[in-house]
Every structure is written in structure tokens, then in C-alpha cells.
Design brief:
Layout: H1 3-9, H2 16-23, H3 28-59, H4 69-113, H5 122-164, H6 166-196, H7 198-214, H8 216-221, H9 225-274, H10 279-296, H11 298-320, H12 328-342, H13 353-363, H14 394-402
Helix pairs in contact: 1-11, 2-11, 3-4, 3-5, 3-10, 4-5, 4-12, 5-6, 5-7, 5-10, 5-11, 6-9, 6-10, 6-11, 7-9, 9-10
Length: 403
């Protein structure tokens, strides 16, 4: 990782997340709408679990059907609305994020193309244009939106539990605090160092792959093929070890989250029974606690995803904020393209921001290519080969000598 990228990640420069969020300002309304739809989806799932539990436990006592009609209709409505809200949330979120990613990729391409003195390696440039730019997409769709939705639904769950039993709400709040704050912080601390090496290793491995493919003849001519293969193999094994370590740590944190969910549900049931809450409502609190803690555990996945994205985001921020006085000219150009794309005049034309770059690339003078000698034309099979100039046919020479 470069010194500038490390400074962006640390306290010496702006955080890469702030740079990305500033670039997302033209699409802020779309992102806020996607976050509210995600929160509504999670709340519909929580309400579905609680209502279905109440319906099953109440129906076990065989009450009159009119007491269950509202709950039956609510369960059906919540089940349908959950799918509709999820689809709408994905549509709104991906619409905003894909527009932003188009502008960011154009800005990264513009910055890479304008570097004359120290151009990046082709493999590293490809990794920046693909994997690192996709980190911007993952930051918004897999970190910011799910984290905001989980936090909002957790607050609503504690408020609804307080209406049934305030002591049980306190136990639920404690469990949600552990699931939403302690476990994400633990996941971040455990995976920070290993995740910071993943993106640079992927870029180096992409560079090795391109060098081994396009430079195979040169490597073979100098006898360096085995050394290049050995270096690429070492990087690949290092990357595999890091990814296995991250997977193992993620599994351990997820197991701890399941344990926290069970302990929180047990504590809520114990406190509710001690407070004299009705048995049906105790079951509703228990199932609702499991659903609420599961929603809050999305913050653990968001924290783990954010830790893995920081190195890629820093590499993108290094290109979009090349100077020390703010975000630089590249960010200004990206903001201008984003504002033009978000305007009603340019609605539905997110991909046009690349057209200017392609047009400038076409206007650049082409490099002079050396003239290659034209190969001789092969003789046609139905026509005899031409004789060199100045030679005579042997048959005519013999006929002239006899005559």
C-alpha cells in the first residue's frame, strides 16, 4: 500500500469513507429512501415473527375465530409487504449506487490516464478500476444501508418491548447493545490487519497474471519464467492464508452472535416471567428478541465488510483526492458529472460520463508504428511461378541452338 493510501486510512488525511460519502451527495435522497425501505423491510420481518407467534399461541386455546381474523390478515399482509419492500429497497439502492459507481470509475480512469510521469502497472490499474471501485458499491449497499436499518429497527424493538414489560425491554436493550456494538468492534479489531493486506495483494496478483501472460516470451528468453511463477505463487498462497484467516474469524464472531441471541432471549423470558407478564406475550417477547438480535447482528457483517473494504477505498480515495487541500480536482470533476447525471435533463444517462473520456482518447495522436516489409505473395496453384527478370526459357534456348 502506498504512503498516501496509508495516510488517508490513518489520521493524517481525510477518511476514505468521507470522500465516498461526499461523492454520493447528488444521490443522497435515493440513498435515504433505500435506507428507509430497508428499515421497513426488517421491521416487517420482526412484526411478522411476533404476530405469527401470538397467532399460534392464541389459537392453541381455541378462541372464537373473530379474535384471530385481524392477526391472520396481518400475517398475510406482513409476509407480502416484506417481499415487496425488499425488492423496492434493492431497486432504489442499486439505482443510486450504480450511478455513483459509474461516476467514480470515470474519475479513476481520468486520473490514471492523466498520469504521465509514473503510470501504474496494467494489472494494478485493472484492479483499481474493478475491485477497488466495487468497494464503493459494497460500502453503501452492504455497510451503510444495512447498518442504518438495523440500528433503527433495534430502537423500535426496544420501544415496543417497553410497552409490554419495561424490565424485559432493559434486558433486550443490553443484548442488542452487545450484538450491535461490542461484537462489531471485536470483529473490526480482529480482522483489521489481515483485511488491510487483501486489496494490495489482489492488485499485485493481477499484475503478476498480466506479466506472465503478455510477457511470457520475454521471461522465457531471459530464463526468468520460474522465478516469476514462484513469486506469483507466493503471493497467491499469502492471499489464500489471509482469506482463510478472515473466514475463521468471521465464523467465530458469528458463533458468538448466535450465543448472544440465545442468552438475550433467555434473559428476556426470565425477566418477563418475574414481572408477571402473560404467557402468550412472553412467547411473543422471546421470538421477537431472537428476531431483533438477528437484525442487529447485521452490524457485525457490516463491520467485517467495512474492515475488508478500507484498503480498497483508500486506493480509490488516493486517486480521487490527489492533493492535500481537500478532495482535489478529480473529485470536482466527478461531482460535476454526478450532478449532470442526476439532473432531470440527463435522467437515465448514467453511462454518458465515460463518453467524454472515450472521445478524448480518440483525439489523442496515435503512436507512429514502424513500417514492416511486405511479405512476398505466394504463387497460385493454377498458375506457374514467375521467372526472375533477365532469364530466358530453357526450351527457347535449345530450339534456337538447333535451328
Amino acid at each position: 500500500m502506498s504512503e498516501r493510501s496509508e495516510r488517508i486510512i490513518g489520521f493524517g488525511g481525510p477518511l476514505p469513507e468521507l470522500i465516498v460519502l461526499r461523492l454520493a451527495r447528488p444521490y443522497l435522497k435515493r440513498l435515504v429512501g433505500a435506507g428507509l425501505l430497508a428499515a421497513a423491510t426488517e421491521f416487517a420481518g420482526l412484526a411478522l415473527m411476533a404476530t405469527a407467534t401470538w397467532l399460534l399461541m392464541t389459537a392453541a386455546g381455541q378462541p372464537p375465530l373473530d379474535r384471530l381474523t385481524v392477526a391472520i390478515v396481518a400475517v398475510r399482509a406482513l409476509a407480502v409487504s416484506r417481499g415487496v419492500l425488499r425488492y423496492t429497497e434493492r431497486l432504489a439502492g442499486h439505482d443510486a449506487v450504480l450511478r455513483l459507481v459509474t461516476d467514480v470509475r470515470a474519475g479513476v480512469f481520468d486520473t490514471l490516464a492523466s498520469r504521465r510521469g509514473n503510470p501504474p502497472r496494467s494489472g494494478d490499474a485493472l484492479s483499481r478500476l474493478v475491485s477497488d471501485v466495487e468497494a464503493v458499491q459494497d460500502l453503501l449497499l452492504r455497510v451503510v444501508v444495512p447498518a442504518a436499518a438495523a440500528g433503527l429497527v433495534s430502537v423500535l424493538a426496544v420501544g415496543l418491548a417497553a410497552l409490554v414489560s419495561p424490565p424485559a425491554a432493559l434486558a433486550l436493550a443490553a443484548g442488542l447493545l452487545v450484538a450491535a456494538v461490542v461484537l462489531p468492534a471485536l470483529a473490526t479489531v480482529l480482522t483489521r490487519r489481515a483485511a488491510a493486506e487483501v486489496a494490495p495483494l489482489r492488485g499485485a496478483l493481477a499484475t503478476d497474471a498480466i506479466d506472465l501472460t503478455h510477457g511470457a516470451a520475454d521471461l522465457a528468453a531471459f530464463g526468468a519464467t520460474s522465478d516469476a511463477l514462484a513469486a506469483a505463487g507466493r503471493r497467491a498462497r499469502r492471499l489464500a492464508r489471509l482469506e482463510r484467516r478472515l473466514a475463521a474469524l468471521g465464523f467465530a464472531v458469528d458463533a458468538a452472535g448466535v450465543l448472544v441471541a440465545g442468552l438475550t432471549a433467555g434473559a428476556v423470558v426470565y425477566v418477563a416471567l418475574g414481572a408477571g407478564v402473560d404467557g402468550v406475550l412472553v412467547g411473543v417477547l422471546a421470538v421477537g428478541t431472537l428476531a431483533a438480535v438477528e437484525i442487529a447482528l447485521a452490524l457485525v457483517g457490516a463491520a467485517r465488510q467495512w474492515t475488508g473494504l478500507r484498503s480498497g477505498l483508500a486506493r480509490v480515495a488516493h486517486l480521487l483526492a490527489p492533493d492535500d487541500a481537500g478532495l482535489g480536482t478529480a473529485r470536482t470533476s466527478v461531482d460535476q458529472r454526478a450532478a449532470d447525471t442526476a439532473s432531470p435533463r440527463h435522467a437515465g444517462t448514467a453511462g454518458r460520463s465515460i463518453d467524454g473520456l472515450a472521445e478524448r482518447a480518440l483525439r489523442r495522436p496515435a503512436r507512429a508504428r514502424p513500417a514492416l516489409p511486405r511479405p512476398p505473395r505466394p504463387p497460385r496453384p493454377d498458375r506457374p511461378a514467375r521467372r526472375p527478370v533477365g532469364t530466358r526459357c530453357t526450351r527457347h534456348r535449345r530450339s534456337g541452338s538447333t535451328g
